[in-house]
């Protein structure tokens, strides 16, 4: 006679995997704000309460999705045209999540804020810092943070429609301007 523990472990691992997959799909389709915990549970085919059990809350689940998407390979830096394009396109598909907002305002949950902040550095700041340090440029950390802030500012203003021409311009026209602006920090 068994107590069922191994099968429960397999079920919990599978439920966690299903929640990550469903959340990733829904965050991509609808964005962070328009995706509910209930929607994620329904898409995954599991009780939405399991999100709290395995991840803590929707924001922490979002961070887990971001980590899973990134994998083990560090991303290229922002100065690569393909990387810059992919981030703009991703932002066009998704509303800003906790990683983006960690640069703009603190999250209510300090643990989520810390995890989002760490992901922001891992995904955007650190690759630039390494690039600048590798070139022997002074203050590589500061340069990387300024470049990241400039990029995030463009994303924020474009998404909010705050600056009319910036919001309306085609991505093909915008990319070279943003790249040129960021490259000033690379010399």
Explain this structure to me?
It is built from ten helices and no strands. It has helices at 5-30, 37-44, 49-54, 58-70, 81-93, 98-101, 110-134, 140-160, 164-168, 171-183. Helix 4 (58-70) runs parallel beside helix 7. The N and C termini lie far apart (69 Å). The mean pLDDT is 87.
Q: Shape, please?
A: globular
Q: Average the pLDDT over all residues and give the rounded result.
A: 87
Residue share in helices?
A: over 70%
| Number of helices in the DSSP assignment | 10
| Uncertain residue ranges | none
Task: State which percent range the strand residues make up.
Answer: under 5%
Helix and strand content put the structural class at mainly alpha
Terminal CA distance: 69 Å
Which labels suit this protein?
single chain; 10 helices; mainly alpha; 187 residues; globular; 0% strand
Please outline what is shown here:
This protein is 72% helix and 0% strand.
Sequence-ordered SSE layout with sheet pairings:
Layout: H1 5-30, H2 37-44, H3 49-54, H4 58-70, H5 81-93, H6 98-101, H7 110-134, H8 140-160, H9 164-168, H10 171-183
Helix pairs in contact: 1-2, 1-4, 4-7, 5-10, 7-8
């Amino acid at each position: 006679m068994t107590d069922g523990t191994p099968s429960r472990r397999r079920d919990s691992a599978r439920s966690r995997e299903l929640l990550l997959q469903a959340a990733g799909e829904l965050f991509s389709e609808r964005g962070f704000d328009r995706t509910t915990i209930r929607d994620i549970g329904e898409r995954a085919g599991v009780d939405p309460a399991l999100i709290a059990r395995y991840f803590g809350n929707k924001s922490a689940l979002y961070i887990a999705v971001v980590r899973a998407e990134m994998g083990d390979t560090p991303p290229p830096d922002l100065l690569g045209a393909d990387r810059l394009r992919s981030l703009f396109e991703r932002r066009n598909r998704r509303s800003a999540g906790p990683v983006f907002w960690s640069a703009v305002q603190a999250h209510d949950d300090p643990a989520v804020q810390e995890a989002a902040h760490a992901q922001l550095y891992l995904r955007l700041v650190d690759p630039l810092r390494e690039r600048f340090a590798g070139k022997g440029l002074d203050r590589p950390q500061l340069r990387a943070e300024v470049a990241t802030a400039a990029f995030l500012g463009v994303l924020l203003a474009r998404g909010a429609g705050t600056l009319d021409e910036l919001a309306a311009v085609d991505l093909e026209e915008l990319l070279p301007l943003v790249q040129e602006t960021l490259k000033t920090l690379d010399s």
